[in-house]
Structures are given as C-alpha cells and as structure tokens.
Amino acid sequence: MKFGISTFVNDDTIDTVTLARAIEERGFDALAIAEHTHIPASRESPYPGGGELPRVYYRTLDPFVTLAAAAVVTSRIELITGIALLIQRDPITTAKEAASIDLMSNGRFVFGVGAGWNIEELRDHGTDPKTRGALLDERIEAIKALWTEEPAEYHGRFVDFDKSFQRPKPVQQPHPPIYIGGNSNATVKRIIRHGAGWISNPLPPEELTRRVAQIRDGAGDDVALTTFGTPADPAYWAVLDDLGYRQANLLLPTKPREESLRILDDLAAKVATYRG
After folding, report:
1. In this structure, are residues 30 and 77 in contact, taking their beta carbons and an 8 Å threshold?
2. What is the reported pTM?
C-alpha cells in the first residue's frame, strides 16, 4: 500500500510549492486537495463530522490551481482532487482544467469527485439538491467524452452540447483515474456504474469493510481504493492494507510552514516504521 498526503490548503498556512516539494522529498506518493468554493454563512447544513464547521473549510484554495502549481515543482507524486465538487462545476471547463494538469504533470492527475454535503453551497451554484446525484452522473460522463472523443458530444437532461473539439487531451489513456467519494448505497451504485474507484473518508473499520464488500460484489475485486483524511494510526493503516487499498492519503493538519514540515517528518517516520 502506498502513502500520500491529504489536506486543506488555506491562504494562511504552508504555501503550495513548499508543501508539494516537501511531500515528494519525504517519499510520499500523492497530494490530495479538498475543495469548497465558498461557505454560506447560514450554516443550515450540519457538518458531517459533528459540531462546528472547522475553520479550514472557510479558506481553501482552488484545487485545480493548487495542483497545477504542485505539478510544475514535482516529478513523481499523484495530484488528486479529494474531492472536486463536480455538482458545482461546469463540466466543459473542468474537463479542460483536469486535462491541462494531466499534461503539465506528464500523467499524474487523479480525478476525485463527489456530490457534496453543503446544501447551501451547491444551491448557490444553481444546483437542485434533489437532482445532484443525476447531475453528477451526467457531468462525469460528459467529461469522459471530452477527454476521449474528438469531436465529443453529450446529450443529457442536465448536460447538453453538440460535437465539439477540446484540447488538450489527458496524457493518461483512456483517461485519468476517476474516484468517487461518499458513503451511501447511491455512492456504491455510482462507482459501479462509472467503472470508478472509491475515495473514502476515515470511516470505522467495520463500515469500510461493509462498503468495500458491496463495491466488489458489483464491480469485482479490482476496484481501486484510496482515501482522504486517513489518521496517523498504523492500526488503521493495517485495516486498509488488509482490505486491499492501493493507497492511504494521510491527513496533514492545516498548519503554518514550519509546523507542517515537522508533521510531515513525523508521518514519514511512522510510515517507514510501518513498512519495516
């Protein structure tokens, strides 16, 4: 099992260039970045983790801009949207942004997507919460068409465009890996429908085991599994390893530069010990 780093990159913490270089220098395999375009002040939607919404959610950099910066100062690590809120994004623009990062990084982009939990946030983008799942499905399909067809077209209920040319195409063939986030029966069906992988949050081991079994029952044993926000707990890593995860992206708390570097050192040492 490989190990990457997942984090919320904010405007008052370690800078992207230093972070990306430090991750690669310490032998980690990936950088996964969270996304929130904005946080509505109403706080109607409860934070899934319980309690007050953590401060880091309010100051996130755009993930595609962040990963583009990381791409040009690294040569090896995967660059993951963990997750891109595709129900809030134009699919044509997103397809171009993602393919551009894949080109700039020589094929290191990984497309993590999801339907989101902040109802007020997605409403501000004109998304109807009741149909966000169907919207997500169509946008995934439309982006895959733009990545793989020339010219591409897509005709759905929510996404509709005639034959069009879009460049660049991704370096990875047939397209960058797609991972879907979430923890529901609908998520499992979506992973199977799109031939995608699962990017899971730090769920209890028994819940991970149940969901992985569901996914494999429908899609086979070769479904790719990765994570966002994995705790610095070797016992938890062992659970992921036993379940066949290809990668665990450890949570890097959102901190200033020097503190972030110290935490990365500690995480790298723990990984080295775990690997023996």
Report:
1. yes
2. 0.97
- Looking at residue 234, its pLDDT comes to 98
53 phi and psi angles, rounded to 5 deg: -65, 125
The confidence score (pLDDT) of residue 169 equals 98
In this prediction, residue 274 carries a pLDDT of: 98
CA neighbor of 112 nearest in space, from 138, 77, 136, 90? 136
Helix count and strand count (H, E) for the chain: 9, 10
Torsion angles phi and psi, residue 74, rounded to 5: -130, 165
- DSSP tag of 182: -
Instruction: Report the pLDDT value the prediction gives residue 182, as an integer from 0 to 100.
Output: 96
Could you give the residue ranges of the DSSP H alpha helices within the chain?
16-25, 63-72, 91-104, 119-124, 132-148, 185-194, 205-219, 234-243, 257-275
Structure tokens that stand for 107 in this block: 């094929």
